[in-house]
Amino acid sequence: METRAKLACVGAAALAAAFAALGQTGEQAFIKEAVQGNIAEVRLGELAAHRAENAAVRKFGEALRVDHHAALQRATNLAKSLKVEPPSEPTTEAEGFYEGLSQLSGSRFDAAFVSHMIAAHEAEIARYSRNANSDNDAIAAMVADALPKLKAHLAAAQALQSGAPSHAQH
């Protein structure tokens, strides 16, 4: 009976440790994804600022570069404070999109860039929203700061796609 009680305690402790590791892993995954997403957005923003045919798309690209560079700095610093090695490259998928986009020009570039920015910002908003109630105050604060900017970027991209003038360039 005593052995069973000890095993139950050990099992409960192991289970608690596993759940704690899952939480930490989730935070680590989120912060790494945030760093990679910001790296990708900075690079794509730079590309659009120099390559877009439409002046509004170029301006949007520059706004993305500036905003996501600041967000990258914050996410990188947060990663380091959480003892997470921040990635130095975007995801393979983001890198592939960048390479494909860099082969386009003119209105084809503009349309592909804006369409991607809509999808990317929708995905980022969902990812950040899932972490809005993080137990880690620093992550929750980063999310609270980032979400309005991500939503403004989404609105600007949607306005560019619809051809409507946008007041939410950043």
Structure description:
- It is a single chain.
- The protein is mainly alpha-helical.
- It has a single domain, classed as Up-down Bundle (Ferritin).
- Helix content is 81%, strand content 0%.
- It is built from 5 helices and no strands.
- Helix 1 (2-51) runs antiparallel to helix 2, helix 2 (55-81) packs antiparallel against helix 5 (137-162) and helix 4 (106-130) runs antiparallel to helix 5.
- The longest helix is centred in the N-terminal third of the chain and has 50 residues, at 2-51.
Give a brief rundown of this model:
The longest helix has 50 residues, at 2-51. The chain has a single domain (27-162), classed as Ferritin. The chain is built from 5 helices and no strands.
